[in-house]
Amino acid sequence: MISQVRKKVKRLLDSHKKYRDSDNVLMAKIWYDDAIKMGLRTTYEFLQALKRGELTSWESICRARRKLQELHPYLEGRNRRIRKLRAEEVKIDIKKFEEDEIRDFEQNIVNSDSE
After folding, report:
1. What is the widest separation between alpha-carbon atoms in the chain?
2. Which residues does 75 contact at the CB level (< 8 Å), separation at least 6?
3. What does the pLDDT look like over 29-84, one tens digit per residue?
4. Among 70, 59, 77, which residue's Cα sits nearest to residue 12?
5. pLDDT grade, residue 16 (50/70/90)?
6. For every residue of 75-101, which 3-state class applies, written as one string?
7. Considering only CA atoms, which of 45, 34, 39, 29 is closest in space to residue 1?
8. 60: CB partners within 8 A, 6+ apart
9. Which residues make Cβ contacts (< 8 Å) with residue 35, sequence separation at least 6?
10. Half-sphere exposure (CA, 13 Å, Cβ side) for 104?
């Protein structure tokens, strides 16, 4: 089952970039495909299938997407790349802040010793 979910998710990530950035868009497509395959025609039928656990699970789809994007960086969405860049910027800022704090602390010690 998990390998089938992973194959579906990989096919979608490969075929359209819109599925790379939004779990909601990815989920909607997979659940739409599930509903067509199951012959669900109404919202009620869809919700009953969801309630019974007959649709592909949200957790499995999200887990598969994360794993595939980890293993295949070309499948990463634009948002993920932006978050990675921002994370690096934050790391640099924190390191600079820590260095400034240490420098200020040392300077205060030197100044208090000279008084």
Report:
1. 85
2. 10, 13, 14, 20, 68, 69
3. 999 999 999 999 999 999 999 999 999 999 999 999 999 999 999 998 877 666 67
4. 77
5. very high
6. HCCHHHHHHHHHHHHHHHHHHHHHHHH
7. 34
8. 1, 2, 5
9. 46, 49, 55
10. 6
Distance, in Å, from the CA atom of 37 to the CA atom of 93, rounded to the nearest integer, reads 51
**What is the distance of C-alpha 64 from the center of its chain?**
11
The string of DSSP codes covering 15-77 is H-THHHH-HHHHHHHHHHHHHHHHT--SHHHHHHHHHTT-SPPHHHHHHHHHHHHHH-GGG--
Chain position carrying tokens 């909601």: 24
Find where tokens 């649709």 sit: 55
**pLDDT of res. 29:** 98
Any idea where the domains of the chain sit in the sequence? 1-76, 78-115
